[in-house]
TrEMBL record:
Pfam family, one: HpaB
Protein name: 4-hydroxyphenylacetate 3-hydroxylase N-terminal domain-containing protein
Stretches assigned to the HpaB/PvcC/4-BUDH N-terminal domain: 26-292
PANTHER family in UniProt: 4-HYDROXYPHENYLACETATE 3-MONOOXYGENASE-RELATED
Keywords in alphabetical order: FAD, Flavoprotein, Oxidoreductase
HpaB/PvcC/4-BUDH C-terminal domain location: 299-497
InterPro entries named in the record: Acyl-CoA_Oxase/DH_mid-dom_sf (IPR046373), AcylCo_DH-like_C (IPR036250), AcylCoA_DH/oxidase_NM_dom_sf (IPR009100), HpaB/PvcC/4-BUDH (IPR004925), HpaB/PvcC/4-BUDH_C (IPR024719), HpaB/PvcC/4-BUDH_N (IPR024674)
Amino acid sequence: MNATTPDRREEFAAERWARFRPITDGKSYIESLRGRAVTVYLFGEKVEEPVDHPIIRPSINALADTYDLAVEDPELATAHSELIGAPVNRFLHIVGSPQDLVMKNRMQRRMGQRTGTCFQRCAGLDTISVLHSITYDIDRKHGTTYHQRYLDFMKQAQANNIIVGAGMTDPKGDRSKRPSEQADPDLFMHVSRRTERGLYVRGAKAHMTGGLNSHWICVMPTMNLGPADSDYAVVGMVPGDAEGLTYIYGRQSCDTRALEKGEIDKGNARFGGQETLVVFDDVFIPWEHVLMNGEYAFAQEMVARFTSYHRASYVCKTGLGDVMVGAAAAIAEYNGADQASHVKDKLVEMTHLNETIFSSAIASAHEAKPLESGIYMNDGMLANVCKHNVTRFPYEISRLAQDLAGGLMVTLPSEADFEHDVAGPILRKYFQGRANVPVEHRQRMLRLIENMTLGRNAVGYLTESLHGAGSPQAQRIQILRQMEVERKKGYAEELAGVGRNEERAG
Ligand SMILES: Cc1cc2nc3c(=O)[nH]c(=O)nc-3n(C[C@H](O)[C@H](O)[C@H](O)COP(=O)(O)OP(=O)(O)OC[C@H]3O[C@@H](n4cnc5c(N)ncnc54)[C@H](O)[C@@H]3O)c2cc1C
């Protein structure tokens, strides 16, 4: 390939932005995804139009709700952008103060309450945040122009009101080996070639939340890198419909219920999460959208700062926790058990756990400090504590909700049986709880708890809480790094009258 005969994939940034129309609300967001000619596989078949697929659509609805919240509650879900001099969706806002981070966390909790699922926009927001400071820092060290490219991208992103997905996690192959040591070089994303107009990336990003529902995907390294890994040190913005991209849809527990008639057995018929394996088969990124190109020494700091933002973003699970507390209280009432003292105590326990998560996230936001680029970053220790709480507490909250729901949550016959001429009246007779509560309310509440603790949205409430933004050990490593145990020994030695151990202090 030479400069006079560019590959037809080699499109400049301006040409790509020209294909976008500013999105105003949830409806126009859904329309923006139509007709994109993306390559998507689900259940061994190519999906013609993902927007209309019954398994995919609930995940799109959840993202659409991030636009509708901005319309309904602009104080919570929009912010003034200095970049374009106008209000923007808070999911695209560059945080300029600790209060911005506090508002972000409140918005995330609210979105969890509204959707009861992963609404898929936090990782992209946290990517935008980390790139502000990392591009600035790389430029200062290497004299590059990444920060201006980032600002130019953000102006377009805000003006067009688009969604950015975060592609950080590589498939990683053999976990004991570094990217450049893998038997197959594609197990971590890397630059496959460079041209006058830009570079090509090859590899895949795993578990990507909302990737298929995003207008742009930011690819970035997943771990610290050494000199031998420099081709793996790449950050770039890729349009979600770029040539060379293939999405392979992840299964979720009970996902085929979305194909059934009726809505009760779905538990949460309207909203769901989404994860896909996104394969990059030599995908082009023009230089204007390349934000790291071989500066491997910045990968570790980029991951650390990303996780400071992202681990506090798991505050979203407190919104889902609010739904769980509400569902447990409602089913106890429908069952006629709500006045029992142990029931009240279990609701208190659920609330205590949920608010403990919230308090670590919100404290992390209040303790934010400015970085040299001017952006604010959460307190890292408290963000890691928040995420570590999230790896545990939703499981206990779910256990308590299942306790209060009773066994019917997993033995309830199908909606079709409730509608059957013979079986239906029998089921309604024997599954009546408190006399003044319709049996259907009981059915629906049990299905919601099933959905969030065992079904499709247990992906977002439980397993994503465990592994998303890094598995529990990743937080323990950060806590170990930041816990300043020597300083704390000093406090103890001072009080105990042991005297400072100079050898250790030195
Ligand atoms: C629902 C969901 C949504 C997600 N969304 C996104 C997203 O939007 N974007 C994105 O980039 N990523 C996303 N992720 C990925 C997430 O960040 C990873 O799942 C997480 O970092 C763990 O990586 P892994 O799944 O490859 O597990 P592994 O890395 O295989 O970890 C499994 C276990 O092995 C341990 N382990 C792994 N490597 C080592 C080692 N070298 N030494 C010792 N122990 C090791 C871990 O501590 C863990 O206990 C998502 C994940 C989930 C489950």
